[in-house]
Amino acid sequence: MNGSDRDVLKRIAVIRSYGHSLSVDREHDEQVKKNALLLFDGLRPLHALGEDARFLLAAAALLHDIGWSQGPEAHHKSSQRLIMEDHSLPLDERERTIIGLLARYHRKAFPSMKHRGFADQNDEDRSRIGMLASILRIADGLDRTHRSLVKDIRVTITGDRVTISCSSDQGGDAEWYYGTRKADLFTRIFGREVAIEWIVED
Predict the structure, then answer these.
(1) 88-125 burial string, b = 16+ CB within 10 Å, else e?
(2) Strand 193-200's sheet: what is its strand order?
(3) Secondary structure of residue 153 in the 3-state scheme
């Protein structure tokens, strides 16, 4: 492990600790992070993003639901606000803003130029936010019941379709449904329909 990898692990550890201090369901946060990174890695041929983006996605997954600590209403916006206000997190301002936006966009509205924080970004970062938010939304949907049912994910990319094969030891109708439903932004960003296969393994 090189110095850069160790630095990322240290930063993620601090972010995890902060997230856990506010979390209402730590296991869900960790499962969404697992799902998101498996998707990110499987989708590399499409998004072509680097390790810096992978770090942003991991951090956003750990923090996406911290807004529940402020109440259930608009918790995605509360998550963004908490991320933006806490300067103890080991993030520079660009990273903090992107992670906050990813937390906001894990549900409800798509990224929009009507949103000041998003509109303020350059074209490259707006594109990056859109791609990462689309992955985070699916990752969250795949743990709809908060039971950590997904054990592994394989991604198959064809001309007009992405197939996400989820391995589990039991059925996951809600995960399948909401993973599919929350692929709407992904289809808009990448121009490919998403098919989710749920594979129950003995």
Answers:
(1) ebebeeebbbbbbbbbbbbbeeebeeeeeebeebeeeb
(2) 152-157, 161-168, 193-200
(3) strand
List 157's β-bridge partners, or say none.
Answer: 162
Strand pairing class (152-157; 193-200): unpaired
Q: Which residue has the tokens 């709407």?
A: 184
Triad 32, 33, 34: Cα angle to 5°: 90
- pTM reported for the whole predicted model: 0.96
Residue with tokens 């991991």: 58
E strand map for the chain: 152-157, 161-168, 193-200
Chunked into runs of 10 residues, the chain (202 residues) has average pLDDT values of 84 97 96 98 98 98 96 92 95 97 96 93 97 98 98 96 98 98 98 98 84
CATH, range 3-144: 1.10.3210.10
Task: Give residue 110's pLDDT.
Answer: 95
Strand partners for 193: 161
Structure tokens at 24: 């209402």
Measure the CA–CA gap between 120 and 118, rounded to whole angstroms: 5
- Domain residue spans in the chain? 3-144
Give the pLDDT score at 1.
67
